[in-house]
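Fill-in record for Peptidase C39-like domain-containing protein.
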Amino acid sequence: MGDIDHKIDINGMAQPTNSTCWLACYKMLLKKAGKDNSEAAIRAKFKTFNINFDDAYSNGLDSRQWSLAAFALGFAPMLPLQFRLNTNWWGKTSGEEAFLALLAKGPLWIGRNVNSTTSHAIIARGYASWENKVVWLNPQSASGSAFDQRSKLDLFIGMIGTAMGGVQLHAAHAAA
């Protein structure tokens, strides 16, 4: 697998509060997909799926609602455990190869485990093959814009949350 580099507009896209990483990531990815990324549009779609936007804004989007939020906003939710599989004898694991194949289609909404009680939403937007690192956007920034970070592929996959919907690809990129 070669390099992957999905460009995303990050200007002014940092999360406004400690509990809105999920919203900042959805806004960036919806904009990338050419969809309405306004807070009003997201709120309306959440209402259709009975997701309490105000509660998610105040307390974070509960991991049990990741899949529902994905469906509401046009994303395909996936079970992250598939990316931890290893059926290969050498090189990248089969799970790592599957993750990179999905990432090649488009940037991914990722729910990461911070600790046993806290998750953090980020965007996997690329892969630097020469250093075997995932390039990801962290929406938590004092500058008002998200910023790039890099993590080794195996460590990155290991920190993805286990809840259904912990990895999401927008439908606009799914056919690629």
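KEY FINDING: The chain has one domain: 4-174.
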